[in-house]
Amino acid sequence: LQENCQACHRPNGANLGGMVAPMALTNYDEVRPWAKSIAKNVSTKKMPPWHADEKYHGVFKNERAMAQEDIDTIVAWVEQGTKRGNPTDAPDPLTWSDSEWNIGAPDLILEMPEKYFVEDDVEDLYVRFNSKITEEQMPESRFISAIEFKPGSKVVHHIISQPLGGIAPGNDPTVYPEDIGMNFEAGMNVSWQMHYHKEPGPGTGEWDQSRIGLKFYPKGETPKYHLSGAPLGRFDFRIPAGDANYSISSRQKFEHDTQIINFTPHMHLRGKAAKYEAFYPDGTSEVLLEVPEYDFNWQTSYLYKEFKQIPAGTEIEFTSWWDNSDGNPFNPDSSKSVTWGEPTTDEMSFGFMSFIDNSGDASPMFGGGSRGGERRGGPQINLADMIKNLDENGDGKLQLTETPERMQGLFGMIDTDGDAAISMEEAETAMARMGGGSGRGGRGGERGGQRGGQHSQD
């Protein structure tokens, strides 16, 4: 239990994107009432939560997996009546930091610029704030070594903050590997895109003022590598009502030799499975990660133990599957076709990945995305064309009031200068970051009554 469970199951345990362990398991008296449940959950491998295919065992640094010997020990203990061992034979209790931050005491804590009350009648709500880093907070630019988001209430579903990233249920804090960092400039704007989600009703309203903790490299120190990222994603899908195995794909081409650090697939309640595949310039391919049973409540970032080396010209393809049928117990309504949207009852498809460019150039993040070629095809959303079509006041920019409601969730991510308008330059940069896309919606094999499993493509 010390080795596998107590990092979360302890008093004031880890808060992983709002997911907090409901009980402590640090001594016999705490464990005994939960013994049968523990045995069941470790036997089915529901706990510890880890959703990569077992063939990737040992590949990812942050893998949460119990050895079969440990599982057998717990099951045998329960079957024998959960007897207490001799306390003198027990290991010393683990000691934990008193810090409320998993990364340790931050060098800088950022806070939402004001408290916000999420009203009783709210189910899904997006609210945006902007704050500026003052000279007092940070007199000079620094390189970030770790980032931790701290939700200010239990109604926070996720946070997206430019340029610091974000957090969703099940996410660990971001701790950059040695020699890797992100430049954080003095005086820059920080955006807060808050997604609040709860059951509406009298007395359910809550105040929130979420925070972000930052740790820096020592003053004057520049890490060897700068972190880049690509949100492989699509917005042009429609999941048919009742379809148990609908999928799309998108691609990113890397122009230089690159080291991939991690993958983070993201979908909503109908998310079923995800896959990252590399297509190499010599014509070979390799599946880098499969998540056969995606869980919306545990949006894990899969961090390589040894960074994945890919040569220039490699294309990474992200494929996501959804289950919009009655067989999905998490499906809000199988009778509806589903498109892209911010609420958890709509859907998304993003295959986030972080990487470092061996050339020192961040340009792979901004170009080379495949639109499918001969392998795949599909319509793409062009943000520059959208601005031209939706620019009602003719100022050459897209205002929030001119933006379709379904696309408003992306506004804060694309509006990088925080002026409440998206310029052509910002739109082109965002499109390049997306790397284009490729894919199709298709039907695979029937699910056979089990969430996840193997997924065929036609």
Radius of gyration: 23 Å
What is the rounded distance between the termini?
44 Å
Task: Determine the fraction of residues in helical runs and give it as a percent range.
Answer: 10-25%
Main sheet overview: 6 strands, mixed
Q: Determine the structural class based on helices, strands and strand pairing.
A: mainly beta
Question: How many helices?
Answer: 6
Low-confidence stretches: 362-381, 433-458
- SS strand fraction: 25-35%
C-alpha geometry: globular
Subunit organisation of the chains: single chain
The beta-strand count equals 26
Mean pLDDT: 82
What does this structure look like?
- The structure is a single chain.
- The protein is mainly beta and 458 residues long.
- Helices cover 10% and strands 30% of the residues.
- It has six helices and 26 strands.
- The protein has helices at 28-31, 35-43, 68-79, 383-390, 411-414, 424-434, and strands at residues 15-16, 19-20, 108-111, 116-118, 124-132, 142-150, 156-161, 165-167, 174-175, 180-184, 189-197, 206-208, 211-216, 225-226, 228-233, 238-239, 246-253, 258-266, 271-279, 285-291, 302-310, 315-322, 338-339, 350-357, 398-399, 421-422.
- The strands form eight sheets. Strands 3, 6, 9, 10, 13 and 14 form a six-stranded mixed sheet that branches. The chain has a four-stranded antiparallel sheet with strand order 5-11-7-8, with no helix packed on it.
- The longest helix is centred in the first third of the chain and has 12 residues, at 68-79.
- The protein is globular, with a radius of gyration of 23 Å.
